[in-house]
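Q: I'm building a small set of examples for a reading group on sequence design. Run inverse folding on the following structure and report the sequence directly after it, with nothing in between.
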């Protein structure tokens, strides 16, 4: 919309401040341009509101991560948002047993072939109907 109001258009990637500076110089020539300018100001106000909400939300996530005393953000590639998302899914990591108590290789319980074929050990009705 801003591109339609300025002769020669406007750059594609603009911050809210740069867009506001460009919009201050707009002098609409027609009623349609006045309507476009008003809509552009409304969109700019919405953009600033959303930017403020995102900043507030990131601050709340940082506070929550500090309260959880986690070191996730020290990992490369893990920022505030990803760390908060991981903590939201996992919850308290102390609920999981430490790696020293779990075996290095999981124990797999597999049936032998002859035992799997006997009706006494079959687990489905189709297997016992044979």
């Amino acid at each position: 919309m801003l591109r339609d109001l300025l002769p020669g258009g406007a750059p594609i990637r603009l911050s809210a401040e740069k867009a506001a500076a460009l919009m201050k110089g707009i002098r609409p020539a027609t009623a349609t341009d006045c309507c476009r300018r008003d809509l552009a100001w409304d969109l700019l106000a919405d953009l600033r509101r959303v930017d403020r909400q995102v900043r507030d939300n990131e601050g709340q996530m940082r506070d929550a991560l500090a309260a959880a005393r986690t070191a996730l953000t020290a990992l490369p590639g893990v920022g505030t948002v990803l760390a908060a998302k991981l903590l939201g899914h996992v919850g308290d990591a102390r609920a999981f047993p430490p790696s020293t108590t779990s075996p290095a290789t999981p124990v797999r319980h597999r049936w032998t072939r002859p035992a799997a074929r006997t009706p006494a050990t079959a687990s489905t009705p189709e297997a016992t109907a044979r």
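The chain has one domain: 2-103.
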